[in-house]
Q: What sequence folds into this?
């Protein structure tokens, strides 16, 4: 007795829910590992697309098992070649190939037996998982359209550069076979035979007849070759491309930093991390992100990244100069209609007192209406932070900026003292909740 | 009768690789005829289910069962199998067969018609017969109830998740899964699962256990007034009541844990029941595969002999069969232990040979069956009454030891060398045979871990004992993790002692 049931049409993905449970569980580990990786170091490295491996620690299912490196046991094995009782065989090294190693791996289920490899994209996705562009920014993300070419099969017409040789030759071969186009060898053979016959000084009647027949054959074949060409226009195929429209988004990110003497290496290091994270964040959101570095003392100038972070300058501190340079660059190269403009400013809070009003004016009147987002971080070293633990003792620049913040949604100010603070700061700046409150 | 003559008299069941339902059906009937009439097999009714490769992967992840409760570990194995399959590191099984009544066989749609015929002979008759007749399966599993029970388990756990949250349920399942290997009744008869009565039992159990627990909550002052002799008596009485020592840790925790809720106990019971269901499969893997391979080999040859399958089909079958029963030598890069298909099939064929064409050696070693000319009867008895360990002890012949060129390697980890202590010669046969049998024994498959003591009058700590076999202690890191899981289920301190089997001396103590 039997039934046959066709289960192929049953809904797929029976294990989808288990899969989801597993990913949820793994996600905690991945997230943790990613956050750990960020804390200590390597923000610079994650630019380079390296892979990060995450040991599946809490995903291990433990069970009681014997310690294969202890005790004594018998192992019956097949395929004896020349062993006789009493033979001794040297124990293979524990990690190496061979008997011992393999058995060990099977039974001892190593901790790293189940690993995830995160590509850089996945890594960043998880890294920025709970951050998002504020909604009000999203609204204004420019959907600029660019044109791109995509393969679209084959065509009979096209430009010579797109000739598809393989397909053309295949068609040609098929046609020649079907129409019995005489091959080169056949013609050559005939010509040789004719030549041989002609060389004879006194050909017999039979030979002359043969010659005649051969000549006729040759003539026929050559005519056929002319009628059935090697490559006919019918055979020719071109690889075809079609134009597709792709949405594109551009953003420019301004990094403004005070590089005057009051900014120490630690300050710069902190600022650098902040810029780095912001950059990573933006390249997740936009296909093209330009980065402009503007450093300032009492004078401001646009520089390259290397100079921005590493060269030393001396001088006073006038923040508004940097804002002016930024304003100028926007006007010249990054019209606000075409670009999403982000700015991040890092400073230790020092500024010429008389300049604060000027800063406020430029920001509120000129820059903030153009920018999607303007973030200001004030970097303090730990020593300073300990001396002034509460917020009452703030710098003048902070006071000014804090005023602006109260009236502008797209402006944020934060204080940073240690590398660990960076991530939460960025997190706060772009936190999903915040955007909801303000939107 | 020549081959060409046969072909004119009988039309083949099918030709070419394509299959359809009619061909499958006709082949099944032809196979069934041979299986029941010639081989005398006794099987459950069969239900053939055609599935896609994706569904096969799904089935993999739920330990081969058609339905299973939800847990992340099944998702883990799914992703693992899927990744391996996509990379081409491993192929998929051609079939999965479930020990149920009716016996469910999954066959893959990608299989050629030859493979479908082979798979039906292998699973729907070979495995099916083994499931229905082997004494271990008869005793420990209930093919009629398993699917209903899994349905109950799945619903119950879903209900628990709704009521208590997925996280809480997951915790219990994690801990219970860690003890799966210690959740088996090894030596007592399993009660049949009666789905209709389960709900009632669940209620009764709750009531019964409440009365049991009163003992646990006995307060200290009562006992301090009594003298030590009385306390000893009480302890003994308690141990008796608790059924100590108990090797089924999941059972013990389910019945006696002071911290678990009723639903948590029921989950332990579910995990325990599923583990128990698979227990016979582990003990009969080699025989079960041997039986199925023997059956499909015999049936395919009969079909060919009677002209019901073509030569092309036969070639395809032989090619496949040879690969399945290949046994790489110990020094081959493909070696990964003894292939149960190879050894199983070879032993069955060997028994057939001993029954029909015994040598003098066979007559000496197997006087009961040599030359009895009843190979099928002999095999059916063997399939019914043995497990891997006893089957090897009983039937592994010197002839086969020579054919496999088996040798025994003594591996004493305290010495720098392995020692070859027996090979395929007159002096070695018995040693090799008993050593091989021991590898399939319960003792070497499962660790001997028991609950030996529970301090109910003090801090309620639980003490487990591990009886060391072959001088092998526990893998420490995992042992600690498992003990942490036991602690979650027991609620109080748990420690485990590894003891010398003879002296009872504690070699090593593991705690959380």
A:
């Amino acid at each position: 007795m039997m039934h046959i049931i066709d289960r192929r049409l049953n809904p797929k993905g029976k294990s989808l829910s288990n899969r989801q449970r597993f990913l949820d569980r793994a996600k905690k580990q991945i997230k943790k590992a990613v956050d750990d990786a960020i804390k200590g170091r390597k923000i610079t490295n994650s630019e380079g697309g390296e892979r990060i491996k995450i040991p599946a620690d809490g995903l291990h299912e433990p069970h009681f098992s014997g310690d294969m490196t202890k005790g004594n046991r018998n192992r019956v094995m097949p395929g004896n070649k020349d062993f006789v009782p009493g033979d001794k065989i040297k124990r293979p090294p524990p990690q190496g190939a061979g008997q011992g190693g393999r058995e060990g791996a099977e039974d001892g289920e190593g901790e790293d037996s189940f690993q995830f490899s995160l590509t850089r994209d996945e890594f960043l996705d998880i890294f920025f998982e709970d951050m998002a562009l504020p909604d009000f920014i999203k609204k204004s993300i420019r959907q600029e359209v660019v044109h791109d070419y995509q393969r679209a099969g084959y065509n009979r017409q096209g430009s010579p550069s797109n000739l598809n040789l393989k397909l053309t030759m295949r068609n040609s071969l098929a046609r020649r076979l079907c129409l019995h186009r005489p091959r080169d060898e056949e013609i050559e053979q005939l010509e040789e035979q004719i030549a041989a016959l002609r060389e004879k000084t006194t050909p017999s009647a039979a030979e002359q007849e043969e010659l005649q027949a051969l000549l006729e054959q040759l003539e026929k074949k050559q005519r056929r070759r002319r009628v059935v060409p090697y490559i006919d226009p019918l055979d020719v195929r071109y690889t075809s491309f079609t134009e597709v429209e792709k949405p594109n988004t551009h953003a420019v990110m301004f990094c403004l930093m005070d590089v005057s003497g009051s900014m120490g290496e630690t300050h710069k290091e902190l600022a650098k991390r902040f810029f780095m994270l912001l950059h990573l964040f933006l390249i997740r959101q936009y296909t093209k992100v330009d980065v402009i570095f503007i450093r300032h003392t009492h004078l401001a100038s646009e520089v390259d990244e290397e100079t921005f972070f590493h060269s030393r300058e001396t001088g006073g501190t006038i923040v508004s100069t940097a804002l002016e340079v930024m304003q100028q660059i926007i006007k010249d190269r990054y019209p606000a209609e075409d670009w999403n403009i982000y700015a991040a400013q890092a400073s230790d809070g020092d500024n010429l007192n008389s300049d604060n009003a000027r800063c406020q004016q430029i920001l509120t009147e000129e820059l903030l209406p153009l920018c999607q987002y303007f973030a200001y971080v004030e970097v303090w070293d730990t020593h300073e932070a300990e001396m002034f633990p509460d917020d009452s003792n703030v710098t003048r620049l902070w006071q000014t900026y804090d005023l602006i913040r109260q009236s502008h949604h797209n402006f944020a100010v934060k204080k940073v003292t240690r590398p660990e603070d960076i991530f939460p700061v960025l997190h706060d700046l772009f936190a999903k909740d915040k955007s909801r409150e303000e939107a | 009768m020549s081959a060409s003559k046969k072909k004119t008299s009988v039309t083949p069941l099918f030709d070419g690789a394509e299959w359809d339902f009619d061909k499958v059906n006709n082949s099944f009937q032809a196979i069934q005829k041979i299986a029941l009439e010639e081989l005398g097999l006794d099987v459950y009714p069969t239900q053939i289910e055609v599935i896609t490769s994706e569904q096969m992967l799904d089935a993999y992840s739920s330990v081969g069962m058609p339905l299973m409760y939800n847990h992340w570990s099944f998702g883990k194995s799914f992703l693992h199998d899927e990744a391996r399959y996509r990379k081409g590191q491993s192929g998929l099984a051609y079939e999965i067969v479930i020990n149920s009544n009716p016996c469910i066989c999954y066959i893959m749609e990608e299989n050629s018609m030859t493979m479908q015929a082979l798979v039906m002979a292998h699973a729907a008759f070979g495995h099916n017969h083994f499931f229905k007749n082997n004494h271990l399966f008869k005793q420990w599993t209930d093919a009629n109830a398993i699917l209903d029970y899994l349905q109950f388990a799945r619903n119950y756990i879903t209900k628990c998740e709704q009521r208590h949250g997925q996280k809480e349920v997951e915790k219990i399942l994690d801990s219970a899964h860690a003890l799966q290997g210690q959740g088996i009744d090894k030596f007592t008869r399993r009660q049949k699962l009666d789905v209709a009565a389960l709900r009632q039992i669940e209620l009764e159990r709750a009531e019964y256990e409440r009365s049991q627990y009163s003992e646990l909550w006995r307060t200290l002052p009562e006992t301090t007034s009594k003298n030590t002799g009385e306390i000893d008596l009480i302890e003994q009485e308690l141990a008796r009541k608790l059924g100590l020592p108990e090797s089924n840790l999941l059972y013990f925790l389910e019945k006696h844990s002071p911290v678990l809720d009723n639903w948590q106990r029921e989950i332990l019971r579910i995990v325990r029941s599923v583990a128990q269901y698979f227990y016979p499969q582990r003990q009969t893997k080699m025989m079960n595969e041997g039986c199925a391979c023997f059956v499909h080999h015999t049936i395919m040859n009969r079909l060919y002999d009677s002209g019901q399958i073509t030569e092309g089909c036969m070639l395809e079958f032989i090619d496949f069969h040879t690969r399945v029963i290949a046994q790489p030598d110990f020094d081959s890069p493909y070696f990964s232990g003894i292939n149960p298909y190879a050894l199983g099939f070879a032993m069955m064929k060997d028994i057939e040979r001993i029954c029909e064409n015994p040598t003098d050696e066979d007559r000496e070693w197997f006087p009961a069956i040599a030359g009895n000319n009843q190979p099928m009867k002999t095999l059916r008895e063997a399939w019914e009454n043995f497990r891997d360990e006893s089957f090897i002890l009983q039937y592994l012949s010197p002839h086969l030891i020579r054919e496999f060129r088996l040798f025994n390697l003594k591996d004493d980890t305290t010495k720098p060398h392995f020692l070859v202590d027996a090979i395929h010669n007159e002096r070695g046969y018995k040693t090799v045979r008993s050593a091989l049998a021991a590898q399939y024994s319960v003792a070497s498959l499962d660790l001997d871990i028991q609950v030996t003591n529970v301090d109910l009058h003090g801090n309620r700590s639980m003490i487990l004992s591990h009886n060391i076999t072959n001088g092998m202690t526990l893998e420490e890191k995992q042992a600690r993790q498992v003990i942490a899981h036991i602690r979650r289920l027991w609620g109080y301190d748990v420690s485990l002692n590894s003891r010398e089997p003879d002296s009872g001396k504690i070699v090593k103590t593991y705690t959380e």
